[in-house]
Amino acid sequence: RGGKLSLGRPFDGYEKKVHDYGDITRNHIDDVYSKFDSSKTPITIGGDHSITSQIVNVLGNRFGKISLVYFDAHPDFVSSTRNYYGSVITDVLSNINIESSMQIGIRSPEKEELDNVQKYNLQVITPFDIQEKGIKEIAKNVLEKLGTNVYISFDMDCIDPSFAPGVSVPVPMGVNSLDAAFLLREIAKRGIVGFDIMEVCPNFDVKDRTSHLASRLISEVIFSSGGN
Questions:
Q1: Adjacent-strand bridge partners of 197
Q2: How many whole angstroms separate alpha carbon 226 and alpha carbon 228?
């Protein structure tokens, strides 16, 4: 399915070409992602956040080490158990550049995850950091740290539940929706090899708030990315 999508601020009149591959099962991720050339930006909508580990590993094998920008309320850095939504960072370690990767929105870590964050010196930006420093300063710091082959993974529970209640594990005091959109736009403008948005749970949503916000965030990334 293909078509054009009008995006951007009101009356900007920008259009981007999009193509919908439809529903894809896990066992087809490798095949689908191998078909994208560098002029295309693949976007995945989920779903369990463990999907991200498979995508990042495919892209890492193709492009080399990935600079991962991981938006989440939780570090997902468990190492005692593997191959589930709580071990995503552990499962992609061999395919990411830890020095140019970061986590944004973290506010509910387990001790094991904190130990791993410290062990690997992974940068973490909390909602309190954004509040204290301001979104423009945070964005500047993020862009300065990023390396090549930037991939964005966005768990909707990164955002405060007042904006996005429809997630499986809501955590209060999250990132607000405008700050999230601003960061996504700034990173996407720099250039990305892919983007996913995960953990949208319609059964837990209130008046489709989370789904509508997720759709808008996807639009902002498409609008800000290079290409037509």
A1: 45, 154
A2: 7
Bridge-partner residues for 159, per DSSP?
A: 175
Helix, coil or strand: residue 221: helix
- Neighbour count for residue 129 (Cβ, 10 Å): 16
Instruction: Report cis status (omega within 30 of 0) of the bond before 47.
Output: yes
> What mean pLDDT is predicted for residues 193-211?
96
Alpha-carbon distance 70 to 152, whole Å? Answer: 6
pLDDT tens, residue by residue, 118-146: 999 999 999 999 999 999 999 999 999 99
Residue tagged 């190492």 (tokens):
79
- Confidence (pTM): 0.93
CATH fit for domain 40-224, picks 3.30.930.10, 3.40.50.1010, 2.60.40.790, 3.40.800.10? 3.40.800.10
Reported as half-sphere exposure (CB side, CA atoms, 13 A), residue 124 has a value of: 26
Amino acid sitting at position 207: K
The alpha carbon torsion through 181, 26, 22, 153 (nearest 10 deg) reads 10
Average pLDDT over residues 60-77: 97
